[in-house]
Design a protein that fits this description.
It contains six helices and 13 strands. It is of the alpha/beta class.
Length: about 220
């Protein structure tokens, strides 16, 4: 699947923000809020693409639909397909894979990535440990450079889809001896209701059911 004309050069973006989308509640509500908040602050060096599974391939209004199932167990297949499509259609320096319950602090994220410039695969995010076997970046915000994305695609047949996607990626990079660089992501809770929020995080996870709130409130915390 491609939208480039024949022999047309790839469009280059320094930053690509790839957001895991879904038809499931409350994803669509959260995505509307993302469009109104941090996505509107991206700038000309960046693009946000929302991707989801469906019955056919399509790219329209920055929504990428892939011919993959939309279940939790199929996120890994969907993510690999999205990476393949991105590499086919764009050139880029950095990719941030996020989801519909996350707010990206664009200013801090860009500053962090530019300070982490390297010609080696770069893999970063909130460190999570899988049964003391390997570390992985929490799926709310997986930070990669273009070299890391290419390394994933080179080794996509070694991606273990028995694991949830973020853990599967960590397991793959562990086997390739690509270490995770820890970068904390704020998991928003009731503390925010005091009126204080630390604005130095690169991202904020706003899945409010984890703090005992109904999920329709996600969008307000975003």
């Amino acid at each position: 699947m491609s939208f480039k004309g024949k022999n047309e050069p790839k469009k280059h973006f320094k930053f690509i923000f790839l957001i895991l989308s879904s038809e499931k509640y409350p994803s669509s509500l959260n995505e509307k809020t993302q469009h109104k908040t941090w996505v509107s602050d991206l700038g000309s060096d960046s693009i946000a693409i929302f991707y989801k599974g469906g019955k056919s391939h399509n790219f329209e209004n920055n929504y990428l639909t892939l011919e993959v199932g939309d279940s939790l167990k199929e996120i890994g297949y969907k993510t690999i397909d999205a990476f393949n499509w991105l590499v086919e259609n764009f050139s880029f320096d950095y990719l941030v894979r996020s989801n519909s319950s996350t707010y990206i602090n664009i200013k801090e994220m860009k500053k962090y990535l530019l300070a982490s410039d390297t010609s080696e695969p770069f893999y970063s995010g909130r460190k999570t440990t899988y049964e003391n076997l390997f570390n992985y970046a929490h799926g709310s915000c997986i930070i990669l450079n273009n070299f890391a994305v290419l390394k994933i695609l080179e080794n996509q047949n070694s991606w273990n889809h028995k694991f949830i996607d973020d853990a599967a990626l960590g397991k793959l990079f562990h086997s390739l001896k690509i270490n995770l660089v820890n970068k904390e992501v704020k998991h928003v809770d009731s503390e925010i209701l005091t009126g204080y929020i630390d604005k130095t995080y690169v991202a904020y996870r706003c899945k409010m059911e984890l703090s005992g709130y109904p999920r329709f409130l996600d969008k307000y915390f975003i």
